[in-house]
Design a protein that fits this description.
mainly beta; 2,3-Dihydroxybiphenyl 1,2-Dioxygenase, domain 1; two-stranded antiparallel sheet; 15% helix
Length: 68
């Protein structure tokens, strides 16, 4: 049996753009079991086990120069 080498050892965080921040926070926490760590009008930070999830509204400038 041949096994492919593992190229990713761990993931530190995911960043997701959403249209409705409040609705998305509710969906990730209630349906997927994420824990809300921070929430304001510009972003929300949730985590599942040890992997953080950053969620931004789709209409803001994201740190690092990406605009939507």
């Amino acid at each position: 049996m041949f096994h492919e080498p593992i190229l990713i050892n761990e993931i530190h965080f995911f960043r997701i753009l959403v249209n409705d921040l409040s609705e998305s926070v509710t969906w990730y926490t209630e349906r997927l079991g994420f824990t809300l760590r921070h929430n304001d009008s510009k972003l929300a930070l949730m985590s599942l086990e040890s992997c953080p999830l950053f969620v931004w509204p789709n209409r803001i400038k994201i740190p690092g120069g990406i605009s939507r």
